[in-house]
Design a protein that fits this description.
The structure holds two protein chains of two kinds.
Chain A: E1 2-6, H1 16-26, E2 37-42, E3 45-49, H2 58-62, E4 68-70, E5 77-79, H3 89-93, E6 100-101, E7 108-109, H4 119-126, E8 132-136, H5 151-163, H6 167-170
Antiparallel strand pairs in A: 1-8, 2-3, 4-5, 6-7
Helix pairs in contact in A: 1-4
Chain B: E1 9-13, E2 18-22, H1 26-32, H2 35-47, E3 63-66, E4 78-82, E5 94-97, H3 100-106, E6 111-115, E7 122-127, E8 130-135, H4 144-162, E9 173-177, H5 179-182, E10 190-192, E11 196-198, H6 203-209, E12 212-217, H7 229-245, H8 249-253, H9 259-265, H10 287-294, E13 295-300, E14 310-314, E15 324-326, H11 330-335, H12 345-358, H13 364-377, H14 383-386, H15 395-407, H16 411-415, H17 418-430, E16 440-441, E17 444-445, H18 482-490, H19 499-510, H20 516-537, H21 546-549, H22 572-586, H23 596-601, H24 605-611
Parallel strand pairs in B: 1-6, 7-12
Antiparallel strand pairs in B: 1-2, 3-4, 3-6, 4-5, 7-8, 9-10, 9-12, 10-11, 13-14, 14-15, 16-17
Helix pairs in contact in B: 1-2, 2-18, 2-20, 7-19, 12-15, 18-20
Classes of the chains: A alpha+beta, B alpha+beta.
Chain lengths: ~170, ~625
């Protein structure tokens, strides 16, 4: 199955992934409705935040109305907008609080891997940043869930990597 | 409302705390577009009758932060800052890349117009379709990193509290002034994202004079609709694809910072020790010496730009350990390197970070530092004046002076007025003419590109420009120059622009049929004339006489003392010739005043009327 590698140290923060995603899913440039959102809580520390496809899908189990399911084909989480009640339990259930409610219709937004051909990756590759790229991985790998972290947690690690001790002053 | 625009502007009076949404007629937007063009129009309409008495640092001045219809939709989003400039007393469109403009447009606003003065420090918080004035006492006097950290945290917490349970709130986009702006230092920039600055014009001081620490925006709406979404989608990808196929040594791989060696060694047009020289062959100051030792991120971009001319640099060892900023671009490398007699990359990064943290323009601020150092070299300013020694290459001395300027303490209070005004004052104080050491055009310190070697900027490029010393808007002719006026008005970046598709893109976004020809011959000229009229009206403290001040600084006529172009200097005849040609082409009379018939033909009767008093 397809999985998106995320290399935060290589992310330039151009956020063209957000534009590509929203053009594909929303038909317009809408950064806040993008399934990948780049956080820059500390200058220079850019965190593309997107679903990691955990092996046990805690968001899917947490949904009280069965609005979330897993695609057999891609392993991505699919949102049934008709069923979604905007309760936000999927956000709390995600170890990285990655899902969010759509700024327009308030329904849950989760990366669907564009059916296996993610648009965000294409623009990142165009730019030769390679902060995002697609790999084929084994379904059920436990490692993926390790990437489901909050922007704050990821920021702390990446800032420390880049800035050393200085990072503590910035966070 | 035409497409590409969010549809409204925020009009804030800080004195009365009145906030309202306003809109401009389609016709005005079509003619003046946004950014620099619209700024000129707004300032002229609101202030021209009393222009000469408007104190740029008084509550009557207007602070503008404007986007344009292409901003955020075209790769490379910028915001244009303007107002009556406390440097040249005219109108400068000063742009910087930032996340602020995309957030502003997503919040439903195309720009912010700020008048009046708050009683105590405030910031303006803009969220979807609304705005509020918030207390900023706790961030007043804070340097860049603290300001950003506190505002990011505070605004995210506020938004989370107001609208909980929608997921993680992202950080807002913000523009702010540093301590230099708060002290109304005329070389203070409007800052964003630590190192990014709208430097020319001194608009950080305008923010400070209004007690306005920051403007913060967080929008959750889409970017404005466009006329032809299919075409825009294609162009958006294609423009970037073509960009990626160009020679990307510059700006992407190397940044502009590799110029720190090249402009000195090859074209011999880099300021060295307050422009006493323009040549150096210090390979120790070359690009890779920054690159391999200090860069922790080679590709750092702003919203919608894969150009990544920014490079994140941090000093990991030694006395400056922990200092980080965008690796000095060419301008800061030159101005905080050779022009201060500094040839050590680490020291240059340290000084750049300092200047960024304090909120100086990295060109204008250090120009004044170098000016002071030359006066020290010549024994005109002494240790008694400064309180310390100020030798070339002395990082501690320059840091002490920068901080003294921010505190407006002693000689710092004089130098806080910018190089030209300081030169006037020091000439009086010391009874010796020091204006000949001031490298500026009409109060605006010049970018790091000289004219003497003949290998870089044109002889009268700065002299005729309404943006004065701005190296991004030097005059070439009255036609091609309008391209830059357009970029500053559509508010996008000149590095990533694709001239071949620019006007197609503009049409696909706005639906307007404006042609490049029409812009370059009519619309762009209107903006230049308004800027020129404001510059010549000037006041209240300084007035320019174009027959005297449409010129390079005296230093540009001294022979180069070293390098491959030794003894060359700017040819006065070439300057006069170029000025004559330009005046004629743009439609100014022999004294440099826009001609009545030209203004009338362009429909600028009100500009013509106010210029009458200069024609006597």
């Amino acid at each position: 199955m397809a999985w998106i590698i995320r290399d935060y140290l290589r992310c330039s923060g151009c956020r063209r992934c957000e534009i590509a995603c929203s053009l594909h899913h929303e038909g317009k440039m809408w950064p806040e409705a993008s399934r990948v959102r780049v956080f820059m809580l500390v200058p220079g520390v850019e965190i593309p935040h997107l679903c990691a496809q955990c092996h046990d899908y805690p968001c899917v189990s947490a949904c009280p109305v069965g609005a979330l399911s897993v695609s057999d084909e891609t392993g991505a989480v699919l949102v049934d907008k008709e069923k979604c009640t905007s309760c936000g339990l999927c956000i709390d259930a995600c170890p990285g609080n990655i899902p969010f409610l759509h700024p327009g219709d308030s329904k849950a937004v989760i990366c669907d891997l564009c059916g296996g051909d993610p648009q965000c990756v294409k623009v990142c590759q165009d730019a030769k940043f390679n902060a995002l790229w697609v790999v084929r991985t084994r379904r059920g790998s436990f490692n993926k869930k390790l990437f489901a972290q909050t922007p704050e947690e990821l920021t702390r690690d990446v800032a420390t990597n880049l800035y050393g001790e200085k990072a503590e002053e910035l966070i | 409302m035409p497409r590409g625009y969010a549809g409204k502007f925020l009009d804030v009076d800080l004195s009365s705390e009145k906030i309202e949404d306003i809109a401009f007629d389609d016709e005005i937007l079509k003619n003046y577009v946004g950014g620099r063009g619209l700024a000129a129009k707004i300032l002229w309409d609101r202030l021209s009758e009393e222009w000469e008495t408007v104190d740029p640092l008084g509550p009557e001045n207007i602070f503008l932060a404007l986007t344009g219809p292409l901003t955020a939709i075209y790769p490379g989003a910028r915001v244009c800052i303007s107002g009556k400039s406390p440097q040249c007393n005219g109108i400068i469109g000063s742009t910087t890349s930032s996340e602020f403009p995309s957030e502003l447009k997503c919040a439903g606003y195309d720009g912010v117009i700020v008048t009046g003065k708050a009683e105590s420090p405030v910031y303006i918080l803009i969220t979807d379709d609304k705005a509020e004035i918030k207390d900023a006492k706790h961030i007043w006097s804070k340097e860049a990193l603290e300001t950003i950290r506190i505002l990011n945290k505070e605004v995210r917490e506020t938004l989370e509290k107001r609208t909980p349970n929608v997921g993680k709130w992202k950080e807002p986009g913000l523009i702010y002034c540093g301590p230099a702006g708060e002290s109304r230092v005329r070389t203070a920039a409007v800052m964003t994202k630590v190192s990014h600055a709208a430097g020319y014009g001194g608009y950080g001081a305008v923010m400070g004079s209004k007690n306005l620490k920051a403007i913060v925006a967080k929008g959750r709406k889409p970017l404005p609709d466009v006329v032809s979404s299919g075409a825009v989608k294609l162009l958006w990808r294609e423009v970037d694809r073509r960009f990626s196929q160009r020679d990307r040594t510059w700006p992407s791989a190397w940044g502009t910072g590799y110029g720190g060696y090249e402009v000195g060694a090859r074209s011999s047009s880099e300021p060295v020790r307050n422009w006493q020289e323009e040549w150096h062959d210090e390979k120790s100051f070359g690009g890779p010496k920054f690159d391999f030792r200090y860069w922790v991120k080679r590709y750092w971009s702003d919203f919608n730009c894969s150009g990544s001319c920014m490079k994140l640099a941090i000093i990991k060892t030694g006395p400056y350990k922990g200092t980080f900023t965008d690796n000095p671009d060419y301008e800061l490398e030159a101005y905080l390197g050779p022009n201060l007699g500094i040839f050590d990359p680490g020291e240059c990064i340290y000084m750049s970070a300092l200047i960024d943290y304090l909120g100086f323009s990295g060109i204008n601020g250090p120009n004044t530092l170098a000016f002071a150092a030359e006066l020290y070299q010549r024994g005109i300013l002494t240790k008694d004046d400064l309180g310390f020694e100020l030798k070339w290459g002395d990082v501690e001395g320059f840091e002490a002076l920068a901080r003294k300027i921010v505190r407006r303490e002693g000689i710092g209070d004089v130098l806080a007025e910018g190089t030209y005004r300081a030169a006037l004052k020091i000439s009086k104080m010391k009874k010796v003419d020091v204006t000949k050491y001031a490298v500026h055009v009409k109060g605006v310190e010049i970018g790091a590109h000289g004219t003497r070697s003949g290998q870089d900027y044109r002889p009268a490029g700065y002299a005729c420009s309404p943006q004065c010393g701005d190296h991004t808007s030097g005059v070439y002719d009255a036609y091609q120059d309008m391209g830059m006026v357009f970029l500053d008005s559509a508010v996008i970046c000149s590095f990533v622009v694709d001239w071949q598709y620019l006007w197609d893109y503009y049409r696909a976004v706005t639906g307007w049929d404006t042609t490049e020809e029409e812009w370059n011959r009519v619309l762009g000229h209107r903006i230049i004339h308004i800027q020129r009229a404001a510059l010549l009206l000037g006041g209240p403290d300084i007035k320019w006489d174009p027959t005297v001040h449409d010129d390079n600084p005296p230093r540009y006529y001294e022979p180069l003392p070293s390098g491959p172009y030794k003894d060359k200097t700017t040819d006065r005849k070439a300057v006069e010739e170029m000025k004559k040609q330009y005046y004629e082409a743009i439609g100014w009379d022999e004294r440099g005043i826009p001609k009545s018939e030209v203004l009338k033909k362009l429909g600028l009767e009100d500009v013509d009327r106010l210029l009458d008093k200069l024609r006597l």
